[in-house]
Amino acid sequence: MHRLELLTLLVSLGYAHVLRTPSIDNPALLEARKDGYDDNIVKIDANAPDHNQDFYRFVTRPDIDAPRWNIQKHNESAIAPGYWFLAPYQDPRQKERGGGWVGPHIYDGNGELIWSGVPMLNGFDAFDFKVSNYKGQDMLSMIYRHENGILINSQYELEEELDVQDEHGGRLNMHDFSLAENGTTALMLKTFTRSAEQAELDAADMEYECRVHYYGFEEHDIATGEVLFDWRSQGIVGLEETVFAHRPKLACHRDGGLDYIHANALDKFPDGDYLLSARHCNALFKISAKDGSIVWRFGGKKSDFKWNGHFSGQHHARVRGQNSTHTMISFLDNAYVPSAEHVYSNDMSRGFLIALRTDQEHMTAETIAQYDHPDGGYAPGRGSYQTLPNGNTYVGWTSYSLFSEYDADGNLILEANLRPELKSYRSYKFPWVGHPAELPSARSVAVSTDRNSTVTTSVHVSWNGATEVATWKVYHTKADGSSEKLLASSPRQGFETALTFPGYAKHVVVEAYDSQGKALGKSDVVKTVEPLNLYNAAVLEEDRWQQESGKGFSANIAPAASSSTPLMPISAGSFGIAFGFGILCCAIGILVGFLLWRARFATQMTKWPWQRASYEKIKEKDDADETLVGEETDQMFQKKRVPDEEHHTLSRDSSEGSEV
Ligand SMILES: *[C@@H]1O[C@H](CO)[C@@H](O)[C@H](O)[C@H]1NC(C)=O
Ligand SMILES: *[C@@H]1O[C@H](CO)[C@@H](O)[C@H](O)[C@H]1NC(C)=O
Ligand SMILES: *[C@@H]1O[C@H](CO)[C@@H](O)[C@H](O)[C@H]1NC(C)=O
Ligand SMILES: *[C@@H]1O[C@H](CO)[C@@H](O)[C@H](O)[C@H]1NC(C)=O
């Protein structure tokens, strides 16, 4: 939407103030969600008994341990369409691969997993995970491992990797990575540390030396890597503007230096200037694209605007529109800055949409909308504020990965959170279409269930990141993937779909279809884990089919859910074979038993040396008999056996089968 249209729309909506109405009945959860913020490393014990309540576990993707949502929809019909984007983090200074939940995730509007970026990004933190328009295409963009801004295409392949190019030792900062100018340039915040100049110290009445974290940003041409604009705070934002910390002298030498600005959001105005959020100044700066000077300050110690409100420790400032008289901005007012001179500026965090009147000498600000924390608590650090295309607002509160959505009148219509330890810096909602380059993952297991020798095969399938799958179909194939016959089909049931059908298929292939019936992609040929009882008729029939090339297959095909006809009906003929086989096994069993008994008897006889000769004669004969038994068995059933461990276990079971 054009920015001016958006501006008009938003202003026409008028002032929407959400009343503080905690919407959660469970007092323990409510207290916990209001909890303070800490930057401790998040530890999750994947073997804890309650783990599976809070995390999804998939048969096909043991590498994914995606968190589950606690969701409350207050007015379902008002909720905007779109997927949820977030990236739970483990440790802002993460050095080693994290758990199966660390990194970017996409969920659908019911909290069902769509994509886990954990396998692709090796379980490392990602920040500012969202959809960006890059050269006219929607891509996933994020800051990865504090080192690069990366772009991932809709096939989930790495498209671009960008870094700051700073000759002063500046490093990419974790907060914000956005594309501008129709996705042709990248905006990147950076941080660098050095000692303050004497003039800066004098201006701030600081009579001691100070190491300072300075901030800056770059705008890159993505195609050429050229730095189009490079700005640094030193000499432009004075040390006296900071509200951090209540003991600045100490802070100059702790944590590597005084974090006097803490720049955490960067956006571009339609006029080409930049909007910079300085959390530790409680201020937003408009920075001139011509000379890098500050055009105006909103908030903080030197605000240029008259406003009957206040904010502090803000995050995610964005330009929402601009015309010749007004500028519309939005941000999350955390209202909380730990170790600041004044820690709290309000009794809860809230999202703000503000209209700035910039055409007068005495500039003014007006609150257009305010969205309070759903529990009346704080987003003590981090957080996000997003305006959705239908006029709804989507706010991320970091702790618990809690986010909430408000309709255009400011009513709370949706809130959702993960388990307490799991924090996400920003939460977003976007439309998204994913067509993964990787193939669907499938696993097939056959189980022989009862003494009737029936076999049930169960196939699980998933496709990490695929958004368009409506139906899954399982096909029976030969080992090389030829002779596909439909076995079962099922609507997609979530990230992972289970299809069960009676009968046994040694090799299967699973194929995805969209809602129009168009094939989207299929798995590799998957070998079914064999049932324990290999001598049942279904297995024998299947083995025969697998061996005979080009033979038709007379299975009854029906959707798994409604199918009551066995895939491999146990025919009278096969019963005959099974019965004969049983009798034979009995006979073999009796023979073997007899031979063993005789062998034991013979062993006793060896006590007397003069009887050894006759014992050895008997033993030779026994060995010969046993060989014969083995050969007979193989000839009888003509089963081609895979010479593996599993097989040996299974063939031993044949003696049990003979009792039937
Ligand atoms: C700018 O937008 C504001 C808010 O929609 C509106 O009140 C004002 O009249 C607009 N100014 C101009 C010059 O269009
Ligand atoms: C729910 O949202 C719909 C659509 O925005 C609206 O018409 C309706 O009044 C809302 N219901 C309540 C109870 O707020
Ligand atoms: C961005 O794209 C739109 C639509 O394709 C076009 O009208 C506009 O001029 C482009 N702006 C820039 C800065 O390239
Ligand atoms: C064996 O098969 C019969 C006929 O199909 C069925 O009625 C019976 O329940 C089966 N027995 C078991 C133990 O499944």
UniProtKB/TrEMBL annotation:
<dbReference type="InterPro" id="IPR053143">
    <property type="entry name" value="Arylsulfate_ST"/>
</dbReference>
<feature type="region of interest" description="Disordered">
    <location>
        <begin position="621"/>
        <end position="660"/>
    </location>
</feature>
<keyword id="KW-0812">Transmembrane</keyword>
<dbReference type="Pfam" id="PF14269">
    <property type="entry name" value="Arylsulfotran_2"/>
</dbReference>
<dbReference type="InterPro" id="IPR011047">
    <property type="entry name" value="Quinoprotein_ADH-like_sf"/>
</dbReference>
<feature type="compositionally biased region" description="Basic and acidic residues">
    <location>
        <begin position="641"/>
        <end position="660"/>
    </location>
</feature>
<keyword id="KW-0732">Signal</keyword>
<keyword id="KW-0472">Membrane</keyword>
<feature type="transmembrane region" description="Helical">
    <location>
        <begin position="575"/>
        <end position="597"/>
    </location>
</feature>
<keyword id="KW-1133">Transmembrane helix</keyword>
<dbReference type="InterPro" id="IPR039535">
    <property type="entry name" value="ASST-like"/>
</dbReference>
<feature type="compositionally biased region" description="Acidic residues">
    <location>
        <begin position="623"/>
        <end position="634"/>
    </location>
</feature>
<protein>
    <recommendedName>
        <fullName>ASST-domain-containing protein</fullName>
    </recommendedName>
</protein>
<feature type="signal peptide">
    <location>
        <begin position="1"/>
        <end position="16"/>
    </location>
</feature>
